[in-house]
Amino acid sequence: MQAETVLVIGANGQIGTVLAQALRGVYGENNVIASDLRPPAEDQGLFEILDVLDGARLLDIVQRYKVSQIYHLAAILSAKGEQDPKRAWEINMSSLFNVLEIAKDYKLRVFFPSSIAVYGAHTPRENTPQFTIREPSTVYGISKVAGENWCNYYHLRYGLDVRSIRYPGIIGYQSLPGGGTTDYAVDIYHKAVQGQPFECFLSADTMLPMLYMDDAIRATLELMFTDPDKIQVRTSYNLAGMSFSPAEVAASIQKHIPDFSISYKPDFRQAIADSWPQSIDDSKAREEWGWKPRFDLEGMTVDMLLHLRTQYGMTNYE
Ligand code: NAD
Ligand code: AKB
Question: H-type helices in 107-212, by residue range?
């Protein structure tokens, strides 16, 4: 493996917590620097406080550690972004410019996560193609469309090796989500394992694309390991794992916890979910870098319940 020094920005978040740990497994403890606004709850390795809006501090870290790759995860997500759209735009866009500019100057490889949120009401919702209408209704989605296009621009104009995935909703037991529309699909498992009823902020039949955390991390690393010549898409790759509705995930949990109950009280997040795809065509990712998901809804439910029961100290269940 080529010597690399990796900086993860937004490393305390839902994905960053797990991705930073996976990167340490690949590159070694001393070659991965996690960074975020505040120190992590648990000490896991090299860590730097970084507000990525502070370009001088970012530059200092890149120079000091001789960083060769940046995973830029810091962002304000869909639901939280609607509470203060200007602030969400500022954080999501200015942070990306700081990363792209330094990456251009120091020839760094960059990972930028995009989202199914780039799609909107005029996009085909079933099997959404790689190249189609991107007219999002949220400030988060607008920032991701712009971000994807800026990544592509830096690749075309400066030859920057920037790579991106349009993640669906990510579900994992390792960390909690931070203000998205798909967050319910993590919270539901926590309630179920604790023996509590779950009130869902989306309606029973709201179908959305989702991906298990293990698959999301593997996809990210596989894309970043791919030979640059094979990567034709420099905006962002569609990626699919599974699609389900709240009623379907509840039913899959009830197979293991028959007493689990769900009720529905849709709020402002329903309109966001209704503007997003129901399923994704990820054939470009499959063709160009061999993407294939491993987890379906049933496999994910078994794995989530197993790990969460251990986390909550429930050893003698069933
Ligand atoms: P998260 O909200 O859980 O974590 C984001 C992290 O960024 C937080 O720890 C936060 O403290 C940090 N952060 C915020 N502003 C910052 C700043 N100015 N400087 C430094 N750090 C800052 O998000 P996540 O779910 O881990 O998502 C990571 C990335 O993946 C985001 O870009 C998100 O848009 C994208 N994504 C996530 C999902 C998902 O389902 N989790 C789906 C699609 C795309
Ligand atoms: C959100 O719901 O905002 C995220 C996403 C799909 O980008 N989980």
Answer: 139-158, 184-193
**pTM for this one?**
0.98
Q: Residue 288 has which token pair?
A: 């160009």
Class of domain 172-208+241-278+294-311: alpha beta
Instruction: Please report which confidence band the pLDDT of residue 316 belongs to, taking 50, 70 and 90 as the band edges.
Output: low
> In the numeric block, which tokens belong to residue 25?
């497994």
Active site residue 140: yes
Q: Which CATH architecture has domain 6-170+211-238?
A: 3-Layer(aba) Sandwich (3.40)
Q: How confident is the model at residue 33 (pLDDT cuts 50, 70, 90)?
A: very high
Residue ranges of the domains in the chain? Answer: 6-170+211-238, 172-208+241-278+294-311
Does residue 2 register a pLDDT over 80?
no
Q: Which of 27, 71, 119, 140 is catalytic?
A: 140
**Binding pocket residue ranges, ligand 1, CB within 6 Å:** 9-10, 12-16, 36-37, 50-53, 73-75, 77, 91, 95, 113, 115, 167, 169-170, 177-180, 182
